[in-house]
Amino acid sequence: MKTTMEGSAEGKKVYKLVLTGGPCGGKTTGQARLCTFFENLGWKVFRVPETATVLLSGGIKFSDLTTDEVSQKASDHRTIFKDGIPEHSVDKTASCPRCLAAAADKPNGSEAYKFQENLLRTMIQMENTFFELGKSCTRNCLIICDRGVMDASAFVSKEKWDRMMRTNSWNSVELRDNRYNHIVHMVSAANGAEAFYSTEDHACRSEGVDLARELDYKSAAAWIGHPYFDVIDNSSDFESKVNRMIECVCQKLGIDTGDRLLTTSKKVKFLVSDLPKDSAFPAFQDFEVVHHYLQSAGPRVQARLRKRGQNGHFSYIHTIRRPHLHGQSIEVKTQLTHRDYLNMLTQRDDAHFTIYKKRRCFLVNNQYFQMDIYKDPGHPRCKGLILLETYTSLSGDKLKGILPKFLNIVKEVTGQPDYSMFNLSLKEDWSNTKKFCYSLHDQDEGEFRANGHSQKMINGKA
User: Fold this and answer.
1) Which domains occur in the chain, in start order?
2) What is the largest CA-CA distance in the chain?
3) Who has greater pLDDT, 82 or 104?
4) Of the candidates 52, 336, 312, which has an alpha carbon nearest to the alpha carbon of residue 171?
């Protein structure tokens, strides 16, 4: 279990969650259920409304922000699809954030572009207001954002999105990775539950199934790269889907749900033999990742720092791992400022190498993957090492079926100590050290001992 959040000295939690998803994915119902669940736990829950809906409901008309060509097509009450964008009837268009983004992306859509920019500024300010309320709240606080800043990037060209970032001195690491603790994407019913996909009960939904799938993927792809991103697919009935969504939030927070929710997902890890060309991958984000292990209070506790970022912008996380607590492995993660990160570096454990990686994040088969490519300098055992990770409830042939076909996956290594980052970073050979961590899952988990352990081979190298 993992948790990354802001907190007070008394241990109060403030958790900032983005709930997003494709058309007819269950986002609205899920938000209501999530709110009730956490209020029943005694948490204070704030819900940040979807900013586009708030502003557009104030009287702004889509037709006022677009060209005559679009207005003329909008007057046709049939649903028109052009370049993958739904062009609705006049009434529906008045409150459609996707159409607004599409208009902003047109060459002569300057008014719509400016409105989209101001919409993002408003979203950030609205969210900041709720974030500040969360900090001042005396109880644990969950803040649910109905979509987040990066959702807007799904329907605007990269050129115009980059222009918006430059103009406002924004960057993706801050807006995507540092702003929110957790992203949950509810997959559209059009992707795996087609019989339940409907446009009848939504004033701003007229997408066909194929277009809904495309919009669903774009919405999810906008968040590729966030360190805590869960995709809730349609592999179960809707009730179970909502429970899985609530469960994944509870898991990240380290909340024991007992028998109220079924345990469905776990982290799985695979050894990959080589790195294909970039062109073999779907849309991806690459990050520079640096891990430092710190001196800890005892042999059963692991402490580390993580620096993660791209294009010169970074986030910093401090992790304390207590291997055995009430039958579970617990990781408590705290976001740090750059200054705090530098101060904590003085606690580095000299028994460990610093770990350098390139982390590639991507979506395949409605599954979010992170692939770590180990880089020099480091122990020779890490040379050429590539590990793929994801969270899933599947196993056996079903698990194999969702893995990326373009990767040469050697074997599953979930739970194997030879592929633990803690062990990989040890400076001493495993046959000569007493610090090797055998397991974090068995009854003796977290014990560091040699006990005649012989050096293993990883990726063909000792």
Assistant:
1) 14-58+93-253 (3.40.50.300), 266-457 (2.40.320.10)
2) 79
3) 104
4) 312
